[in-house]
Amino acid sequence: MKQALDNFTGRVTMYRLVTLALSIVAAAAVGFSLFQLATDPPANPPLPFTPAELLGNLAVALGATILSSRMFALLLRTRPHTESSIITGLILFFLFWPSLDPRDLTTLALAGVLATASKYFIAWRGRHILNPAAAGATLVAVLQLGGSVWWVATGALLPFVLIGAFLILYRTGRLAMGAVFALVALAILTVRLTSGGQDVGDAFITSVTSYPVLFFAGFMLSEPLTMAPRRWQQLAIAALVGALFTVPFTFGPIYLSFEFALVIGNGIAFVAGQRRGIRLTYLGSRQVTPTAWEFRFSPKRPLRFRPGQWLEFTLPHTAQDSRGTRRIFSIASAPGNDVAVALRMPERTSSFKRSLLELEPGVALRATSVGGDFLLPRDTSAPVLLIAGGIGITPFLSQLVHDRASGIDRDVVLVYEVTSLDELAFVEELALERVLLIAPVAPPHLPDAWRWIGAGPVTPELLEQQVADVRQRRAFVSGSPLRVNRARAALRRVGVRRIAVDAFSGY
Q: What pTM, to 2 d.p., does this model score?
């Protein structure tokens, strides 16, 4: 099941997955409305809106966000991110009451324009701070021009919202964050409703079906550009936003709405994370295996990161495919002057990767954020086992080169699995490390510290035979979802309990 989920969600970027999930929920809403229209006599409607109201509001929300994005991009001489605008428009569609009244449509359109404006003007050094849909809805409320109603919170749409939210949180590795938010919010809502006279079961069902807890967790809280970089920060903010989500509070024209709770969380995440845009100059590339390339960049300002973290790039280009213009890559270099990433370049690759290969040295690029928790223990005396599959070697390269340059003597065993000897990358950089190589055949030459241990794959028997103290080591696994899942299962079977993973999904 896990492998099937990885394959399914990995076929598209996170942005495209969110777009598809929101579109399915919107189609379900229109479908319910059409069914109600065709029922004779009319039954109790699951949604009290006509198809015209739903489609009209959808057109206004999308039109406002897409057109304003193009307008602001033209004004500021930058490129619009159309898919991001579509996502914002779809979310706003579910927040404001569907109506064909010109005043309501104007409020919705204004929310879309303000949401888009927040990306460009509520920003710090090129990096926007607030979730656009939450910002737009909050600004409309503060200006007393209308308010959101979150009509998506209904039992009829709950199955579609639940599946979409799960897939998004799974794809982004944020299931724990979504669960923390949902548990805090649902617990407080259930207590509040119980104190108002409902029994516990009815109160919980009402909290799930009549409040947008799941929609909020899956489609808004998980927005990547406004998220804190570290996992513990994300969980803490999720708990705080979950509490604020349930608190009725009014101060003058400002009231603590669902979207305002997220705005507060975004502000805290901004303080905790990268507080400026990341500008890079492309230096060049080199082919490290027949199917992998390394790309090197020079940051305009020193880039702060910890070895093992990732960097999200933005690369606008023409004829982009379904994977979009943003991509996350593990950093392959140690902290220092230049920044390197390494990635697979299969024969049939994405438009993003093709455009990356076509870059000329000197081109300016922008990265949006640094983050991740795939970090070796701060206690350098703790023994670790690293298992890399193919290009999954990149975060370990950053960590091990940094340790050696810093004079850190860590007890490390690196198991490096490749499908052919041609796919061995960074042998020279890792020549001094203790490496157990898994490859179809024994290489004719290996560094003195390396040893070929067979054709693989990683199995419990191989781990117990080759790493005598495997149970005493903390394990870190990096590579494709298939290799990560297989290695993690083998580690658990031999009794290793502390396992961190970095699955390169969607590449």
A: 0.79
